[in-house]
Structure formats: structure tokens, C-alpha cells
Design brief:
By secondary structure, the chain is α/β, with parallel strands linked by helices. The protein is built from 14 helices and eight strands. The strands form two sheets. It has a six-stranded parallel sheet with strand order 1-8-5-4-2-3, with helices on both faces. A two-stranded antiparallel ribbon has the order 6-7.
């Protein structure tokens, strides 16, 4: 068959959609755990509690997860969730919160430990309903039946299977979407771009994923031209990129950005921005027609360009965007020794979905990229 696809979670996108949380939670029980990002304004967390309370549901808040928290924090949340007899969990915040909350939803029914989960021990039939309320948009793994998580014991990424119906709902309220707080927050857009472009060129791409991802890339191109100031457009773009990755597959660029972020103190979206031109260069050699389409979305391909010329102009278009947004094209400021990258590169290459890349990703390929950017 060309495609077999089932879309389970309820997706709600738009301004003020947080107000639907109570109605959704009421379907799953009378007590809800809210795992809230430590950086989310307490007024907004209290607003969510009140919305849930209005549906006659008790909400217990755990807000001890910050940017420096490791995934074994999930063990603490499981214990609290179990002790409070919660019927579902809400992940309210950025990427770290979504990751840990997803792990809690898998771990809770059997009370396995986070390290057990990282070693592949999961149940596909028992899980806690998970409601995601992201404040940084969706990532490449938000709708897939797997995800990657950094192992705090060695700071290498691991592949984790996720039950197909784990997500009860995803609420994307554009009023809640915020820029990550680092020196150049607009780099967060490149997480979405690299995820969308790689899935578009993946061996698992199909007519459905192509249609979705072309739209996503188009939206991200518009956002890059406006420095990501349109929250509604970003909500739609990040959802489409996640949807497209579920219908197709993430690629090695996403794997490497997660791997470097896990191993070194570098923001994942900064890694994505730096890696993108090099990943695009590889994709041009194996998917020139699709990369020519990408260039047309970016507005970098001339009307009379050949396929090869148009495809190559995609890199120029991205590099021009990075220059105009004052984004550095390397990671030299982090002083990462090249000899410390090997383990992270191998961990990324060994993630199962990397096999869906349209070229065979050798250690030499990945290592050569890092030799250029470090």
C-alpha cells in the first residue's frame, strides 16, 4: 500500500483554546496532574487550574521542572501522580515539560522507572491519558509513535517507543506560544524548518506528507521573513511539521540536533539552525526536485532556473535568512572539542528513524559536518 495512517489525538489550535482544557479533562476522570514548566507565569498556571476546576475536576500542580532538569525527574512526577490518584496528566510548557510528561504517562500505570523506559521497557496497552499544552509549539516527535530522550547517565540520546493512542489531546493556544529565552530566540524557527524539510525528502514521504509539509515549509518561510512575530502562523506551521513527520519520518538533522543538545550546553534550535545548510546540501544531491520546491517556497529560486540551480539556491536562501537574522553559522563560541562529538554522533546515527534518510548516513558524513561547524 502507498499509505496507512491513523490520526488519534484531538487537536485544538487557535487563540484562547486553553479554555477547552476543562471539557477535555472531564472525559478522563476527576483528578488531573498538571506538570507545569517552572518558567511559565504562575498566573497562567492558575488560570488553567481555574478552567479545570470549573468542570468540577481537581488539579494538582507539579512545577519543579526547569531547563536544567533531567528526564529522571519523571520518577518524582510518577510518584506524586500515583499518590494523588490522578486520572490523566497535562504537560504545560516547553519541550522539556512535554518530554517528561510523555514519559510519566507511559511509566505511571506500571510504575516503571525512567531508566527502564530508556532501556526499552514499555507497555503499549497501559498508559495514563496525556494532554499536551505546549508553549513553544510542537516538535518533530509530537505526533509520532516514538520519541528521543537524553539519558542523564551518559548524556546520549535514546530511542523510546510510545503507545499509539497515548495523546488524549493537544491544545495549541497561540496566545501562550513564546520565544525561547536565549540570545537569538528567532532560531527556534529552524527546529521546524529542518524537521519539515527532512520529512519532505524522507524515504517514507508520500502524497499526504508532501501536501502537509509543503504547506508547513511555506509557513515557516513566511515566518523567517517576519522574524517569527505571527504566533497564529507559527502554531499552524509547527503543527503541520509535526503532522508531516508522523506521516513521513524525522531525519538525521533532527537526530543530530537532539544529540548535541543532550551532550553539550547548546540550545537544540541553535543546533538546528547551524546544521540546516549542511543537511540541505546532502538532500540536494539525492532529492533535487524536492529541494527545488523548497527553494521556491523560500523565494530563492529564479523563475528560469533549472532544477539543479533552483535546488542549490535553497541553501543560499537559508544562509541569507540566517545572515539577516544575525544567526551564526557555527558552534565555535561553545568551544566543543571535536573528539568529544564522536559518541553523540554515533548515538544519533543509531536512532531507528535515521534509516529513513534518503542517503546512507555514514559516521564520516556526520563527523565531517561537525568538523565544519565546530
Amino acid at each position: 500500500m502507498d499509505i496507512s495512517f491513523k490520526f488519534d489525538p484531538e487537536i485544538i489550535i487557535g487563540a484562547d483554546t486553553l479554555s477547552t482544557a476543562g471539557t477535555i479533562c472531564s472525559r478522563y476522570g476527576k483528578r488531573i496532574m498538571i506538570a507545569a514548566d517552572h518558567d511559565v507565569d504562575s498566573k497562567i498556571v492558575n488560570k488553567l487550574k481555574e478552567i479545570i476546576k470549573d468542570s468540577n475536576i481537581e488539579a494538582i500542580v507539579f512545577d519543579g521542572i526547569g531547563e536544567s532538569s533531567t528526564v529522571d525527574m519523571a520518577d518524582n512526577v510518577v510518584e506524586l501522580t500515583h499518590a494523588a490518584h490522578c486520572d490523566a496528566i497535562i504537560g504545560f510548557g516547553g519541550y522539556k515539560i512535554q518530554l517528561i510528561s510523555r514519559m510519566v504517562a507511559i511509566m505511571m500505570p506500571t510504575k516503571i522507572k525512567s531508566f527502564d523506559l530508556l532501556e526499552g521497557r514499555t507497555s503499549q496497552s497501559k498508559f495514563l491519558p496525556f494532554i499536551s499544552i505546549p508553549t513553544e509549539g510542537l516538535d518533530a516527535f509530537s505526533l509520532t509513535n516514538f520519541f528521543v530522550a537524553p539519558d542523564p547517565r551518559n548524556r546520549l540520546v535514546k530511542f523510546v517507543q510510545s503507545p499509539g493512542r497515548l495523546y488524549a489531546a493537544i491544545i495549541i493556544d497561540s496566545n501562550l506560544l513564546t520565544l525561547p529565552s536565549d540570545t537569538n530566540p528567532v532560531t527556534f524557527l529552524f527546529d521546524g524548518v529542518i524537521a519539515a524539510v527532512e520529512a519532505y525528502c524522507s524515504l517514507k514521504a508520500n502524497f499526504l506528507s508532501d501536501a502537509i509539509l509543503e504547506r508547513a515549509i511555506n509557513f515557516f518561510a513566511k515566518l523567517l521573513k517576519t522574524s517569527g512575530t505571527n504566533a497564529d502562523l507559527y502554531a499552524q506551521a509547527s503543527f503541520l511539521a509535526a503532522f508531516g513527520n508522523a506521516a513521513s519520518s524525522p531525519g538525521v538533522g533532527s537526530a543530530l540536533s537532539y544529540a548535541i543538545n543532550a551532550r553539550f550546553p547548546v540550545q537544540k534550535h541553535h543546533c538546528s539552525a547551524v546544521l540546516l545548510p549542511y543537511i540541505m546540501e546532502k538532500l540536494i544531491s539525492v532529492r533535487p526536485e524536492k529541494m527545488a520546491r523548497v527553494a521556491s517556497f523560500l523565494g530563492s529560486a529564479g523563475k528560469t532556473s533549472s532544477v539543479a540551480e533552483a535546488a542549490n539556491s535553497a541553501i543560499t536562501g537559508i544562509q541569507n535568512c540566517m545572515e539577516s537574522l544575525n544567526i551564526k553559522g557555527d558552534l565555535k563560541e561553545f568551544n566543543i572539542p571535536l573528539d568529544r562529538v564522536t559518541a553523540a554522533v554515533e548515538a544519533a546515527r543509531n536512532l531507528e528513524f535515521v534509516a529513513n534518510s534518503p542517503w546512507t548516513v555514514s559516521h564520516e558524513d556526520a563527523f565531517e559536518i561537525f568538523r565544519k561547524i565546530l
